């Protein structure tokens, strides 16, 4: 896929189609009038006939005739101007790109879409719409050749004003980076769990480092090294699995450009490559999608895959405790008590609440790096999906400032997030009888929050935010047009925004 910005007259451009986006309360724009005249009024009569209203995502295809060089004009509705945002544009355009299997060259007029959001945001949104909507996981399909054709699609963003060219180019670059990172994560999540074992994640981390021209370094610890570091919680979860667990630590160090100390941030991803539930095994239907349980790790790897190019001026650590959760003969058992790396003991109330047990060590490890903040992403609880549904991420944090920054980044990225309270009064629900903390509260109520409170026990007061992505990491049904079924790469775009801003 090739995306470019141009300062040109659309009537002079050859294309399979020209996209003319329009607001519902202003169909008769100057651009529209010019094109309509060139086409001898075909556009206005087709609008009449099809009663095109310009509502968000509405599409009307019109054959262009001989007045212009392009073959077809596509009128694309953007809805009401007052409700317009980069996300409206992303979704409306995604619907168009997704359905299109024929065009090799698309010219997209930006004169309306830059209004209110600017050329950079608009171009970023359109680049993301194209790449995210066209994504397919075809590796295991009989005819992967289809993919090749899409690669050749050209998208030309046409600007009225020369001064918008630079911002548009910056937007395209940012959009390509954030979607590239997102697709990296989607591929990892969609990969079957029998292929995407902990070693597979470790190999991806090694590969990212190898291709970073020295900008990303990686350390990987196997079972023995993890034991030597005191990661007994992580290893307890790994005990039931035949597959070797790996603890992955990636490091990126940005360039310092002033005397100011650069910030250090740790991104921690839950990396359960398959969650069977362990000895307290999940019923079949609940297990069906459990290859998704490494989506947090996939988001961290996705970000790292583009970190050298994003080049944020900060030090970023990526931490993943990768293992399966299996009911093998050595599996950890309900009632077990294990000591995490920070010295606290965890009483196992439920073997299916394994994510937080592995994260206890991953967070303890992160704290030792003395970061300014920690952000973890985890497909942690079904309870979060009960609370917020399948599309909204649950955010919990011990720092209002950090939480606000994440919410702002998520909004800009077009990812849905809602904050839940780390209610102190619920802490008693995770008190251990014989251990310091228990990995499952005595009740299902407030399960997302008690999981968050459990994690907080391992961050030693460092500003930290927890993103429970159990819902949005996976698209079970059709929702928005740029989310194909399966792994969504949720969190990557928010993190990329966040890193850019700090
Ligand atoms: N990986 C699951 C959470 C999950 C559920 C993610 C559905 C995505 C979709 C997690 O390890 C889990 O099993 N959590 C339990 C916790 C309970 C046993 C305390 C849950 O949510 O039921
Ligand atoms: Zn589980
Ligand atoms: Zn899990």
Description:
The chain is of the alpha/beta class and 502 residues long. It has 17 helices and 19 strands. It has helices at 30-38, 42-50, 86-99, 118-133, 146-151, 165-190, 198-210, 223-228, 232-238, 284-287, 295-305, 307-310, 355-368, 382-388, 400-413, 447-456, 492-501; strands spanning 2-7, 17-22, 59-63, 72-77, 105-109, 154-159, 216-221, 246-253, 263-275, 314-325, 337-339, 345-347, 373-378, 393-397, 417-419, 437-438, 464-468, 474-475, 486-487. The strands form 4 sheets. It has an 8-stranded mixed beta sheet with strand order 7-8-10-9-13-17-14-15, sandwiched between helices. A 6-stranded mixed beta sheet has the order 1-6-5-2-4-3, with helices on both faces. A hairpin with a 5-residue loop joins strand 11 and strand 12. Helix 6 (165-190) packs antiparallel against helix 11, helix 9 (232-238) runs antiparallel to helix 13 (355-368) and helix 15 (400-413) crosses helix 17. 52% of the residues are buried. The mean pLDDT is 96. The structure holds ligand BES and zinc ion (2 copies). Ligand BES binds next to helix 14.
List the helices and strands and how they pair.
Layout: E1 2-7, E2 17-22, H1 30-38, H2 42-50, E3 59-63, E4 72-77, H3 86-99, E5 105-109, H4 118-133, H5 146-151, E6 154-159, H6 165-190, H7 198-210, E7 216-221, H8 223-228, H9 232-238, E8 246-253, E9 263-275, H10 284-287, H11 295-305, H12 307-310, E10 314-325, E11 337-339, E12 345-347, H13 355-368, E13 373-378, H14 382-388, E14 393-397, H15 400-413, E15 417-419, E16 437-438, H16 447-456, E17 464-468, E18 474-475, E19 486-487, H17 492-501
Ligand BES is lined by residues 275, 293, 350, 352-355, 379-383, 440, 447, 470.
């Amino acid at each position: 896929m090739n995306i470019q910005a141009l300062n040109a007259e659309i009537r002079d451009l050859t294309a399979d189609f020209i996209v003319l986006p329009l607001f519902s309360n202003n169909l008769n724009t100057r651009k529209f009038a010019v094109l309509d005249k060139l086409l001898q009024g075909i556009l206005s009569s087709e609008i009449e006939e099809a009663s095109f209203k310009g509502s968000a995502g509405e599409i009307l295809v019109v054959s262009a005739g001989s007045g212009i060089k392009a073959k077809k004009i596509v009128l694309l509705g953007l809805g009401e101007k007052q409700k317009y945002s980069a996300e409206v544009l992303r979704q409306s355009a995604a619907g168009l790109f997704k359905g299109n299997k024929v065009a090799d060259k698309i010219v997209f007029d930006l004169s309306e879409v830059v209004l209110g959001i600017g050329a950079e945001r608009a171009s970023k949104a359109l680049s993301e719409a194209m790449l995210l909507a066209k994504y397919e996981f075809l590796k295991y399909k009989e005819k992967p050749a289809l993919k090749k054709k899409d690669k050749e699609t050209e998208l030309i963003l046409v600007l009225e004003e020369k001064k918008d060219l630079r911002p548009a180019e910056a937007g395209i670059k940012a959009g390509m980076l954030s979607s590239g990172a997102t697709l990296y994560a989607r591929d990892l999540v969609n990969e079957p769990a029998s292929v995407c074992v902990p070693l597979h994640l470790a190999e991806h981390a090694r590969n990212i480092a190898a291709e970073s021209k020295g900008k990303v370094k990686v350390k990987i610890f196997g079972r023995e090294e993890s034991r030597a570091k005191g990661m007994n919680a992580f290893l307890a979860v790994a005990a039931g699995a035949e597959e070797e667990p790996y603890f992955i630590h990636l490091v990126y160090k940005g360039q310092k450009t002033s005397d100011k100390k650069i910030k250090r941030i740790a991104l921690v991803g839950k990396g359960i490559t398959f969650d069977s539930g362990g000895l307290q095994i999940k019923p079949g239907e609940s297990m069906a999608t459990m290859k998704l349980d490494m989506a947090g790790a996939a988001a961290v790897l996705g970000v790292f895959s583009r970190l050298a190019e994003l080049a944020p001026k900060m030090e970023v650590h990526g931490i993943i405790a990768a293992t399966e959760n299996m009911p093998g003969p050595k599996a950890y058992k309900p009632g077990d008590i294990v000591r995490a790396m920070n010295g606290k003991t965890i009483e196992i109330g439920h073997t299916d609440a394994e994510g937080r047990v592995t994260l206890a060590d991953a967070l303890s490890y992160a704290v030792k790096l003395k970061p300014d903040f920690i952000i973890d992403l985890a497909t942690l609880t079904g309870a979060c999906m009960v609370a917020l549904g399948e599309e909204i991420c649950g955010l919990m944090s011990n720092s209002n400032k950090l939480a606000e920054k994440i919410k702002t980044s998520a909004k800009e990225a077009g990812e849905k997030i809602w904050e839940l309270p780390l209610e102190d009064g619920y802490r008693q629900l995770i008190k251990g009888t014989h251990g310091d903390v228990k990995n499952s509260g005595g009740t299902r109520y407030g399960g997302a929050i008690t999981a968050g409170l459990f994690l907080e026990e391992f961050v030693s007061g460092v500003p930290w935010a927890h993103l429970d992505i159990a819902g949005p990491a996976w698209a079970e049904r059709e929702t928005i047009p740029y989310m194909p079924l399966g792994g969504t790469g949720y969190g990557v775009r928010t993190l990329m925004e966040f890193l850019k801003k700090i």
